[in-house]
Design goal:
With about 150 residues, the protein is an all-alpha fold. About 75% of the residues lie in helices and about 0% in strands. Helix 2 (about 45-85) runs antiparallel to helix 3 and helix 3 crosses helix 5 (about 125-150).
């Protein structure tokens, strides 16, 4: 696994958390549209079918909520571990560029990285300068990964 892939794990877990939250909300919205009793043309109730479907959907929500909690725990652990590794970089600018790119949540898109122009602005560089610093930081970070794996 490359240093970049290693760092992007946090973003991938965030994407999974958002996806699971959206799935849960979709099912909950669907469940809210269920009426307990529905009569057909003959006046017969379809309560059992509706109740079974409702039970299936509620079971799916419970399963997804459990998976969501697991992903949140994974995110906390993975982010803490990566922050620890990033803190081992000797150059504070390299630490900052990796933190901004991989660990800082985008204000409008929680799963998207902060752009190079914004990173450069925050750090006092051009977008190109921020990218070059990033490349150097990735090389340094890959050395730290190798040291921790051995």
């Amino acid at each position: 696994m490359t240093a970049k892939e290693y760092l992007e794990q946090v973003r991938q877990i965030r994407q999974e958390i958002i996806r699971l939250g959206e799935q849960i909300e979709t099912i909950r919205t669907d469940v809210g549209s269920y009426h307990p009793i529905q009569l057909d043309d003959t006046g017969a109730s379809h309560l059992n079918y509706r109740t079974d479907k409702l039970s299936e959907k509620m079971a799916a929500v419970v399963d997804l909520c459990s998976e969501l909690e697991d992903k949140k725990a994974d995110l906390i652990l993975q982010e803490a571990f990566i922050r620890k590794l990033v803190s081992m970089l000797s150059d504070p600018r390299e630490r900052e560029v990796l933190t901004l790119r991989y660990l800082t949540i985008h204000p409008r898109k929680p799963f998207a990285p902060i752009g190079w122009k914004q990173i450069g602005f925050r750090m006092g560089y051009s977008a190109e300068g921020a990218r070059h610093l990033h490349d150097r930081a990735l090389k340094s970070f890959s050395q730290i990964i190798k040291k921790t794996e051995s």
